[in-house]
UniProtKB/TrEMBL annotation:
Pfam families: MATH (PF00917). Residues 1-109 form the MATH domain. This is MATH domain-containing protein. Signal peptide: none annotated. It comes from Caenorhabditis brenneri. Transmembrane segments: none annotated. The lineage of its organism: Eukaryota, Metazoa, Ecdysozoa, Nematoda, Chromadorea.
Length: 158
């Protein structure tokens, strides 16, 4: 991969929002980017604050990090992409995490607060208690209380 060249994952829908992951070589490091593909030009203003737990994995080896982000189409915070720059040194990544030319990058997203986004739509997609648990961040004090209540009610149906 050349410097500043990006490789993208397929788009997936999580919390009713389309996302994709990208990686790029920045200087001598791997940068992991999380793209939100929700319309930035929508008339309805929206924002989502979330925790992104990023990691690269090869067998039992892991390199991980967590960050909090807010993405929004509001003028005060108009971002559709968050990044984890300098995630790992490029040479270390090649030596320890690339096998047969492949790198396994995972980004787990926990929504903490959503505004202007229909929540019931995404909660209705949960099929098990595991889906609900995966959506709850470690720090419950940072989650939107009405969202937590809806998730708790959904969990009782399983």
């Amino acid at each position: 991969m050349k410097a500043d060249e990006r490789t993208y994952s397929e788009e997936v829908v999580h919390y009713g929002i389309p996302w994709s992951i990208a990686i790029e070589k920045t200087d001598d490091h791997l940068t992991i980017l999380l793209h939100c593909h929700r319309s930035m030009s929508s008339e309805q203003k929206w924002s989502v604050t979330y925790q992104a737990d990023s990691k690269i994995v090869l067998g039992s080896k892991r390199s991980a990090g967590a960050h909090w982000y807010t993405l929004s189409n509001r003028p005060e915070n108009h971002y559709s992409c968050s990044s984890y720059p300098n995630f790992i040194k490029w040479g270390e990544m090649l030596k320890n995490y690339v096998k047969d030319g492949c790198l396994n990058v995972e980004v787990h997203v926990s929504s903490l607060k959503m505004e202007g986004i229909e929540r019931k739509h995404c909660i209705s997609k949960f099929k098990s208690a595991k889906d609900v648990r995966a959506a709850i961040p470690l720090d419950l004090s940072r989650i939107d209380r009405p969202l937590l209540e809806e998730m708790f009610k959904k969990n009782l149906t399983f």
